[in-house]
Write a structure and sequence with these properties.
GTP-binding, alpha+beta, 34 strands, ribosome biogenesis, seven-stranded mixed beta sheet, hydrolase, EFG_II, 36 helices, eight-stranded antiparallel beta sheet
């Protein structure tokens, strides 16, 4: 197929029904980019011979070196099927788990996906992840089973064995889809059950009958699954340029066999065989030991082709095959020493993979105008808001989405999924274009003129009489000087927004609204006048900006083509948006448009490094470079810590390496030095262990030793701190005016997980409480209230037992940052404060007016500070409950009046309730007089500063001492690690895992292959260099996939010292070699500049001086 002109692609952009927006999704190294190359080659953009070798869409140098895709890139292709023509916007996405955020950005802009699966490896971890992402975004997938040539050449399977193997792969893929479908149906059923229960408030008089059906029987799921007879599966070998669907072979054989193609399409895949005598297609091939039709008519032919071309190199047979297929193969291909060249030449004509894949895409995947109502509602419902709760004008836009029209009246709605950086040389306006004949003539004349001037100048140097000639070189040098700044400008990075138009026509120079992720259409509709546009002068609205669309581009892989307008349904690039969009945003001409729901990222950024320039003077360049990197990468995070360090947070080692290379070479263009990865830890407390370090029960003697140790520690505590044997810490403020009693209790593991998973709900509750304190009301949707109620009931279910009685109602705050996995409990006798569950108990709260005590906020602030940095190594706490047992204040009212200005939680009613008004004023007058006297003497009433500050410090210290009174433990971040390896390297895999503190969860063999899948957990602290070591030790036969999973308590006590005889025998006197927790803790303390208790010299020998050596 010849090269498609840009005019034809622009013309096709206007026909929405013939557009297909698709992305290629797969596990790493399953052949996405090779398949994309074959599709690109079909448009004549690259040579068919280079398809699979060039990797056209991998435009970065490091992508070419590593051989993996690191960023999603788009290209527009033309495909003609008969009379109808199609525009296919293809997005190639990465398969490596570190770059799964790029997959999210690609999936959001598409209506369909090509899922590629390796015929040998089958369904891998990332295959499941991409199928889940496609499911969450409501996009329809089709399947390509790639690398079938490996079944022939590597595994040497017979056609019958290969058929069985392909059936198993289809089952595996369908099992993943079935799981996703089942979970969705069960969720919907649960919602319906709740609604029915609410409707039936009166209990029925008849017998209660339980409905055992899960609702799966009634729902139709036939369209979800991949089956070759439905036409949504292609079998391919992209590297050899062939691929086919059942439909193609049905067309070939329907003429030869005289059977209708519809019948063949249904019977070519499945348990059918050809009865040659009866000349009929019959069922039951497996039971009768017959060859299935698929093997007989399809696979046998492909196997015989490989046998003739690759295995035996039989020239005569090859010539016969070429003649029978009616193909023309060039003589140089027949003579080529590499058989794969000949194979590719034959297959690319007989079964071109591009035709099979693109025809399946056009037939089976929807156009932009076929977007589902459910997907639209999901896109428009931001965060906790439900679609029903959105303003009427916003809900009316749903129809605009569904119509996907390019009419003048339709509002423009565009979603930007990411920003990507390009060199200014790559922009169309800066690209070198071919010169016209007139320009060539003009330049030739100019060159001749310059040459003549140079000659004249050289003559004038020899002949000093001509004085005028000396001026020309000065002019040319001035010209060269003025050119230099433009060259510097050319090196500047430009950002292009990767976007899709959902409605209307986007035009160059158009004024639009840019809606941030937190934009609220209800607020803006109240503020802005009706019928306003982005061109009008408007009042400022939060998270709303107006801008002009400067440049529109068609994305063509490595190149960009400038456009004047882009109609609805197309993928495009928008230039000049870097000032308005950080990572993603919604663009619209209507202020009623809601921001789209945030993207679903599979990988969480966990690997942190501190970055500094090699030359301190280049710090501004580094700051600018990190800002650009943050904008260019959807998953990377850039932050400045309290210590002043510039920290880069990435998803994994490969991602980190790419970000550092980008900083050095593209964004900062300076030498930078990165620290060793900053490994995150958490601190927690546990119940007192019942066994010691050698797994023996703690005897009475040891318990007595522990009590003596506790008494020794009590003497270390400063004045005003008392710790009793039960772990209750009582601490008095320096001015002796307040005393707090705190106890630390470990939270059950399930509760910690629940709190961690519901941080958004906790944040919403905290916001509601803050608004209520200020006398405002925050509108929360019914769905969110139901979720909060469900969260509360789960907490109540998990916090059972005597010590947790009414604990959920007594929750004072969550921390750190008011939404973390730690709890502050109110166990103060006689103190009732407004509940954190105010939003779900509004009626109850109205009837019982409960007021806050003075300095309530100081207690919360102290708790927040304590949970943000623990006493072990200043890392955040996790899974700890601090119970406030007592809180007494004996302060003078002068201090109250002084501090109540600062405290936002103190209420006037509470002050009046606690003290008699008349008595108080008299007391304050006396205090005022005393204060004036003391000020005259030159001293202050309270040398420790404001009372609230003292209380915050006291609360923080009390929490820390209470934490230290319990058995302390470190929590490590854990990766789940999936490794695919053959049996002969299994031992080496286990060796690498055990060396790095890994723990194998399970190991299973993949059916039909000699591959094992090993699932393990590995501490993040031990993961650096793990993938490289694994590849080296196994000679590249095993490669791990690491995904952050959870936090796990390290069982060893970092402060443990041997006490019993057995422990001395087992661990030695110091016992420091085996204590992994102590190593981790000391490493973090050293990094933070905290005190570390260690001996620099342990076994010193006398040093021999030089004088004695003489």
């Amino acid at each position: 197929m010849g090269h498609t002109s840009l005019e034809k692609l622009i013309r096709l952009q206007r026909k929405t029904s013939s557009i297909r927006n698709i992305c290629i999704l797969a596990h790493v190294d399953h052949g996405k980019t090779t398949l994309a190359d074959c599709l690109v080659a079909s448009n004549g953009i690259i040579s068919t011979r280079l398809a699979g070798k060039l990797r056209y869409l991998d435009s970065r140098e490091d992508e070419q070196i590593r051989g993996i895709t690191m960023k999603s890139s788009a290209i527009s292709l033309h495909y003609a099927a008969g009379e109808s023509e199609y525009l296919i916007n293809l997005i190639d996405s990465p398969g490596h788990v570190d770059f799964s955020s790029e997959v999210s950005t690609a999936v959001r802009l598409c209506d369909g996906a090509i899922v590629v699966v390796d015929a040998v490896e089958g369904v891998c971890p990332q295959t499941q992840a991409v199928l889940r992402q496609a499911w969450l975004e409501n996009i329809r997938p089709v399947l390509v089973i790639n690398k079938i040539d490996r079944l022939i050449i590597e595994l040497k399977l017979s056609p019958q064995e290969a058929y069985t193997h392909l059936q198993k792969i289809l089952e595996q893929v369908n099992a993943v889809t079935g799981t996703l479908f089942t979970s969705k149906v069960l969720e919907e059923r649960a919602v319906k059950e709740v609604e029915v229960q609410e409707a039936l408030s009166e209990p029925s008089s008849g017998e209660l009958v339980y409905d055992w059906s899960a609702g799966l029987e009634e729902t139709d799921d036939s369209h979800l699954y991949f089956s070759p007879d439905q036409g949504n599966v292609v079998f391919a070998s992209a590297i050899d340029s062939w691929g086919f669907s059942i439909h193609q072979f049905a067309q070939i054989y329907c003429q030869k066999m005289g059977v209708r193609s519809e019948v063949l399409q249904k019977t070519l895949w499945g348990d059918f065989y050809l009865n040659a005598k009866a000349k009929k297609i019959m069922k039951g091939a497996q039971s009768k030991g017959k060859k299935p039709l698929f093997v007989q008519l399809v696979l046998d032919n492909i196997w015989s082709l490989y046998d003739a071309v690759v295995t035996r190199r039989d020239k005569e047979k090859v010539e016969k095959i070429v003649a029978s297929l009616g193909l023309t193969v060039m003589a140089r291909d027949l003579r080529h020493s590499d058989p794969k060249v000949l194979l590719s030449a034959i297959c690319s004509q007989w079964l071109p993979v591009s035709q099979a894949v693109l025809s399946m895409v056009c037939e089976k995947l929807p156009s932009p105008s076929e977007i589902g109502a459910e997907r639209v509602e999901r896109l428009m419902s931001v965060g906790t808001r439900r679609f029903d709760s959105l303003p009427e004008k916003t809900q009316e836009l749903k129809q605009v989405f569904l119509d996907c029209t390019s009419e003048e009246t339709a509002p423009v709605i565009v979603f930007v999924s990411k920003m990507f950086a390009v060199d200014s040389k790559a922009l169309p306006q800066n690209r070198q274009r071919p010169l016209t004949q007139e320009e060539i003539t003009q330049r030739r004349d100019l060159a001749r003129q310059r040459h003549a001037e140079k000659q004249a100048a050289s003559q004038s140097a020899e002949n000093p009489e001509s004085a005028n000639a000396g001026g020309t070189p000065a002019v040319t040098s001035a010209n060269t000087l003025t050119v230099k700044p433009t060259a510097e400008e050319e090196e500047k990075e430009h950002f292009i927004a990767f976007a899709r138009v959902y409605s209307g026509v986007v035009r160059r120079g158009q004024r639009v609204f840019v809606l941030g992720p937190k934009y609220d259409p209800a607020l803006s509709l109240r503020t802005l006048p009706d019928g306003c546009s982005a061109a009008d002068p408007l009042p400022s609205v939060p998270h709303l900006a107006c801008c002009t669309l400067e440049h529109l581009y068609m994305l063509m892989g490595r190149e960009l083509e400038e456009l004047e307008e882009v109609p609805a349904g197309n993928v495009l690039g928008i230039g000049g948006m870097e000032e308005f969009i950080l990572k993603s945003a919604t663009i619209s001409t209507s202020p009623a448009c809601p921001p789209f729901t945030p993207l679903n990222f599979e990988a969480t950024p966990i690997v942190r490094v501190a970055i500094e320039p090699k030359h301190p003077s280049e710090m501004p360049k580094l700051v600018r470079g990190m800002r650009l990197l943050n904008q260019a990468d959807p998953c990377a995070e850039v932050l400045i810590q309290e210590t002043g360090e510039h920290v880069l947070v990435t998803a994994g080692e490969v991602h980190l390496q790419r970000c550092l290379d980008d900083l050095r070479e593209r964004f900062a263009k300076i030498g930078i030095s990165a620290s060793k990865p900053i490994i995150p830890f958490r601190e927690t407390v546990i119940r007192p262990p019942k066994v010691d370090m050698v797994n023996e029960e703690m005897g009475r003697q040891q318990k007595v030793a522990v009590i003596h140790q506790a008494k020794d520690e009590q003497s270390k505590y400063p004045e005003g701190v008392h710790v009793d044997s039960t772990g209750l810490v009582t601490l008095t403020t320096p001015n002796k005016m307040a005393t707090v009693g705190i106890r630390a209790v470990p939270l059950p593991e399930e509760v910690t997980r629940l709190l961690e998973g519901n941080s958004e709900l906790i944040r919403t509750m905290e916001q509601f409480s803050l608004f209520a304190r200020e006398g405002k009301t925050l509108e929360i949707s019914q769905k969110t209230l139901e979720e909060i109620q469900g969260f509360k009931s789960k907490l109540e279910g998990l916090l059972q037992g005597h010590k947790w009685r009414n604990a959920v109602e007594r929750i004072w705050a969550f921390g750190p940052r008011r939404c973390g996995p730690n709890i502050l409990l109110n166990s103060v006798e006689g103190y009732r404060r407004p509940s954190v569950w105010q939003c779900v108990e509004r009626e109850k709260e109205k009837s019982e007016a409960v007021m806050l005590r003075d300095f309530d906020n100081s207690i919360v602030s102290g708790f927040q500070l304590a949970t943000l940095s623990g006493p072990m190594c200043e890392e955040p706490l996790m899974g700890v409950c601090f119970s406030v047992e007592s809180w007494e204040i004996k302060f003078s009212s002068q201090l109250t009046q002084q501090d109540s200005v600062e405290e936002d939680s103190v209420s006037q009613q509470a002050l009046e309730a606690d003290n008699n008004a008349s008595g108080r004023t008299a007391q304050s007058i006396i205090l005022d007089e005393n204060l004036k006297k003391s000020k005259r003497k030159g001293d202050t009433t309270d040398c420790y500063g404001p009372f609230s500050g003292q209380l915050i410090a006291a609360m923080k210290e009390a929490c820390r001492y209470a934490f230290q009174a319990k058995p302390q433990r470190l929590m490590a971040a854990m990766y789940t690690c999936e490794i695919m390896a053959t049996a002969d390297v299994l031992g080496r895999v286990y060796g690498v895992l055990s060396k790095r503190e890994g723990r194998v969860l399970n190991e299973e063999m993949k059916e039909g292959t000699d591959m094992f899948i090993i699932r393990a957990v590995l501490p993040v602290a031990e993961s650096f260099g793990f993938a490289d070591e694994m590849r080296k030790r196994t000679s590249g036969l095993a490669s791990p996939q690491l995904v952050f999973s959870h936090w796990e308590v390290i069982s060893s006590d970092p402060f443990w010292v041997p006490t019993t005889e057995e422990e001395y025998l087992h661990f030695g006197e110091k016992a420091d070699s085996a204590n992994q927790a102590l190593k981790y803790m000391n490493a973090v303390r050293k990094r933070k500049g905290l005190y570390v208790e260690e001996k620099i010299v342990e076994h010193a020998e006398k040093q021999r001086t030089l004088s004695k050596n003489k």
